[in-house]
Amino acid sequence: MSIAMLSAISLICADAALPAAALSSAAATQAAAAQPTKEAAQETPLAAAERDMPAAPGAASAAPGRDAGTADAAEIVAVPKSIEDALVFADESDAAVVARLEAYLAALKTLSGDFTQVSPSGGVTTGKVYLRRPGLLRFEYDPPTPLLVVANGGLVYVRDEALETTDSYPVRTTPLKFLLQRKVDLEDARVVGVDRGVDNVAVTFASADSETEGELTVIVSAPEMALRRWIVRDIKNGVTVVALDNVKTGERLSNRLFETPDAGGIFLDN
Questions:
Q1: Which of 168, 149, 158 is closest to 257 using CA atoms?
Q2: Which of 43, 71, 91, 166 lies 20 to 30 Å (CA to CA) from residue 150?
Q3: What CATH number belongs to 10-125+173-250?
Q4: What is the pTM of this model?
Q5: Tens-place pLDDT, residues 7-66
């Protein structure tokens, strides 16, 4: 599967805006490096990944000396004990934090909103997302991106209107499966890392199944446990960061949103 296709497939189910600060300027990064702050010491995996991601068009480049295309979602700076005590769920084991995330995802039935994606190449795309768990999703990219992604029946369909092609892949071969499952399958999902911030946690999953390509880091605000964004690392070490804005949960979503195309056909348009 190509990196571009995996990046498209990875666009599933997150719940927070991608703030302008997420694509930080080199000047700000250099200032932070020169004079470390408490906030820098508390940098979460998500913040580390965002710092290392390529900047959006018009924004300054990533911090000098860092390879933006190989940011590690599970990388976190050493945290002094005094600050560590202030981190969310500091007194809970990693297993307990993972259990909290599992319970939250199991209770999440529907979600809709706007998404922003920063790809491994630095491209920024936006659009609409609709999720109905388990197993159903729809991602509509804003123009000029000609893509539409729909998951249904255990397959992910990727429609390219410019090329007039529709490709499909089994959900089980993508990290997407951890978000679409009714319940995270811990016999398959290998927990790579659990990282805490002052108001969020990040859990990184890899699969025990060799057919599944890449890793998925799920970031939720805490302690209230609300999905904010996710990070996908593909098999070639490319990192895709996705975030949502204007999110609504618990609303009824029509079956029509998740209809799959006929071979060579056209996806449903709202």
A1: 149
A2: 71
A3: 2.50.20
A4: 0.66
A5: 443 443 333 333 333 333 333 333 344 344 444 444 444 454 444 444 333 333 333 343
Distance CA 5, CA 262 (A): 20
User: Which has the higher per-residue pLDDT, 207 or 51?
Assistant: 207
Residue 261, burial from CB neighbour count under 10 angstroms (0-12, 13-18, 19+):
middle
Rounded to whole angstroms, the maximal C-alpha distance in the chain is: 59
What ranges do the domains of the chain cover? 10-125+173-250
User: Taking the C-alpha atoms of 106, 128, 245 and 96 in order, what is their torsion angle to the nearest 10 degrees?
Assistant: 20
Decide if 171 contacts 133 (C-beta within 8 A).
no
Q: Could you give the CA distance from residue 138 to residue 11 in angstroms, rounded to a whole number?
A: 9
The residues, ordered by sequence, that sit 6+ positions from 255 with a Cβ below 8 Å of its Cβ are: none
pLDDT in tens, 127-184: 999 999 999 999 999 999 999 999 998 999 999 989 989 999 898 888 888 888 888 8
Quickly tell me which residue has 């690392």 as its tokens. 233
Q: Are 191 and 98 in contact (CB under 8 A)?
A: yes
Q: Please, which contacts does 137-142 make with residues 24 or more away whose CB atoms are closer than 8 Å? A: 137/12, 137/13, 137/180, 137/258, 138/257, 138/258, 139/8, 139/11, 139/12, 139/115, 140/270
Neighbouring residues of 24: CB distance < 8 A, sequence distance ≥ 6: 50, 51, 60, 63
